[in-house]
Amino acid sequence: MGKYSKSMFLKNKITHKVSVIFVLFSFTIVPNAFAQQMSEDGVKTLSQEQLDGFREQAIKTINDLEKFVQVIANKKNSLDKKNDAIELALDLFISDTTTIEISSLSSNKTHIYPIGGYLARLKLLPYLSVKITWYKIYLGTQFVKGPNGYYYGSATFLQKFEGRSNNEMGNYTDVTKRHIIIVLKKLDLLNGDSKTNKYVLKLGDIKVEETTHG
After folding, report:
1. What mean pLDDT comes out for the span 103-127?
2. Of the chain's two ends, which shows fewer C-beta atoms within 10 Å, N or C?
3. How many whole angstroms separate alpha carbon 188 and alpha carbon 183?
């Protein structure tokens, strides 16, 4: 991406952190944007047995994403290894149009980036070292069926980002609280002459709630 000037680093400080940990599940079920899309039969929920299974899948997906993010942000890893991790991380999301909202302690504004573009920025952060900590992981109890046949849920999460200083900018630390959309995508599968439905868990848009000093 070429050399960066000091002013560019300061202006783009919001891009110098990772915001992908999952904490405290929202008991409002889904954000307003998704709730407004629900049809009347959208109040139907999954069975407890199905929900328990998807909760296990959600935990595994979160743990996988954490591993990929750490690989991408680790300054010691090669670009090839980081690029491989980006591809694997992107496969965890519902589509390549999924977005992530970014905040900074230095500004009251937020910016939204496609998840692929954000991960590409992450691998090139201008720090000597980056430490990302995920903690307090909780998942909620319900998904709501949307008119498209998918089930939607949401979670809130915290993440601590620590960037060690280099010659261009000082140390940077913050904790960001966010919302993440969780999607159960319906797939139609053929089994001989029969057609069956299967749900696959994917991640959706990531929003900012607040950013505080770490």
Report:
1. 91
2. N
3. 16
Query: What domains are there in the chain, each with its CATH number?
Result: 19-31+39-213 (3.10.450)
Q: Which two tokens stand for residue 200?
A: 């696959």
Q: Which sign, positive or negative, has the C-alpha torsion 62, 68, 72, 75?
A: positive
SS3 98: coil
CB atoms within 10 A of CB 146: 20
Prediction pTM value: 0.74
Q: How far apart, in whole angstroms, are the C-alpha atoms of residue 55 and residue 49?
A: 10
Mention every residue, 6+ apart, whose C-beta is less than 8 A from residue 50: 199
- Using a 10 angstrom Cβ sphere, with 0-12 exposed, 13-18 middle and 19 or more buried, the burial of residue 32 is exposed
User: Which helix H or strand E contains 181, and what residues bound it?
Assistant: strand 172-191
CA distances from 196 to 54, 139, 182, 192, 202 (A): 18, 28, 22, 10, 19
If phi > 0 it is left, if psi is from -120 to 50 it is alpha, else beta; for residue 2 that is: left
Residue 13 carries which DSSP code? Answer: G
pLDDT digits (tens, 9 = 90+) for 65-103: 889 999 999 999 999 999 999 999 999 999 999 999 988
Are 137 and 59 a contacting pair, CB within 8 Å?
yes
For the chain, the straight-line distance linking the first and the last C-alpha, in angstroms and rounded, comes to 29
CA distances to 113, 194, 202 from 16, rounded to whole Å, are 13, 50, 25
Which position has the token pair 């069975």? Answer: 47
